[in-house]
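Entry for the shared binder. Reason: the reviewer on the internal report wants the predicted structure included alongside the sequence.
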Amino acid sequence: MTTITLNLVRLVRQLAASWLIGLALIAASPALVHAKNACTANTAVHADVAAKIAHGHAFTKHSDEFVHGVIINGLAFPDPTLESADDFAGFLTKILDNPTVSRGLANSRTAHWDARTGTVIIYNPLPEDCGTAFRPYDGKTYFDDLK
């Protein structure tokens, strides 16, 4: 073989190898993204799920709904004010241990309703914080309409 032919063979091999590596990285990237953002709570232990939700966006965004006496959908929050994400986690654990009703939703999510406090918890295995919890303004209707 001539020098030009050998160089051409080497170039083709390098391009093929680069193409295969690139294809493998593209194929693996959705799994890597999902694994990075997946909920890491032990779903068999309600306290783990509750802690992930409470220390995610839920308490920061919805803490004003969990103040003693705050009325949402005609229901005053009956418990003492939840002062911290840890307090919120304990509150959520009690609901997950004994919800009024629970049901499956689309995309592997699960909804839990607590009639006593008007609280909905939505467990979602995809985001890192495992879901959310709040007191919806439409109350049980909101829970019933979840898909």
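Summary line for the report: Helices lie at 3-37, 46-62, 85-97, 140-145.
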